[in-house]
Description:
single chain
Amino acid sequence: MYLLLLGIVLVLLKYLQMGPVATWPWWWVLSPFGLTVLWWAWADATGYTKRQVMDKMDQRKQDRIDKQKSALGLGAHKKR
């Protein structure tokens, strides 16, 4: 996501002829978009995004369980 935002900012700077970006070649300005495509392809191919979603769901599930246990008074006790 950061690469996509960087690409948008660089395109705007190039289009508006602002700063040192105005003198850069277009392929250099557009390179963050290519890197974004590569990142998304890698993340989908390796299952990175799916693992992130599953970890987030597992954390939310554990938080709900902990909240219910503490509401019942079961979460503060330690095993002897």
